[in-house]
Amino acid sequence: MTTENKNNKINLFDIFYVFLKIGIVLVGGGYVILPLLNSEIVEKKRWMSYDDILDKYCLSQCIPGIIVANTALFVGYKLRGFLGAIAAIVGVTISAFITIISIANILSIIFNNIIINNIFDYVNLSVIVLILITLKDMFPKCIVDKTTFFLFVFCLYLILILKITPFVIIFISIFLGFIVSLIKKLKGVNKLQ
Q1: Cα 79 to Cα 72: distance, rounded to the nearest angstrom
Q2: CB neighbour class for 66 (10 Å; exposed up to 12, middle 13-18, buried from 19)
Q3: What does the buried/exposed string (b/e) look like for 73-105 if buried means 16 or more CB atoms within 10 Å of the residue's CB?
Q4: Helical pair 50-61 and 114-142, crossing angle rounded to 10 deg
């Protein structure tokens, strides 16, 4: 059964619950959501393909906002339309919201606790692993020809050597992507090779 045939049968609560589970363990920002989505939505539930998840993740980085919420929006929408998007966003954000509200008054105590600091140090190690998994998965999808490889190296140079902010790099990438697309269109090349 294809994803399109299953979409109307996916329960909204199931979408909410999957994204709630992701939201509970999501530490480290938007870059760690991809392996979690792959585990829950592709491997366990088989609601979408990994390529679909990767497309939604990449799209979520191209629009303003929080990567996690944007990704939940696109994936939820793909699964069940507007209501699926709402269920996914609420699910992925509610645990962080409740946690922040619950501990807001005792944050200074928590952050000065040596045990809590040690726990966060070890959690950060798992975040690095999840970011590396995301990099491994995205690299072959994004670096598809000499032009994209050059842009990758160029952006790396701008960030690491010239210390240009990521904000500027994103706009440079948008501009260069537009120029390359125009050149390829004029040459009659429809897709990246």
Answers
A1: 10
A2: middle
A3: bbbbbbbbeeebbbbbbbbbbebeeeeeeeeee
A4: 110
Range of the domain at 75: 3-141
Contact 82, 21 (CB under 8 A): no
HSE, CB side, 13 Å, CA atoms: give it for residue 87: 19
Q: What is the pLDDT of residues 133-183, one digit of tens each?
A: 888 888 888 888 888 899 899 999 999 999 988 888 888 888 888 898 888
Q: How many distinct structural domains can be found in the chain?
A: 2
Pick the most confident of 64-73, 83-92, 169-178.
83-92
Q: Would the pLDDT of 193 be above 50?
A: no
pLDDT value at residue 41: 93
Q: Are residue 64 and residue 127 in the same domain, yes or no?
A: yes
d(CA 187, CA 181): 10
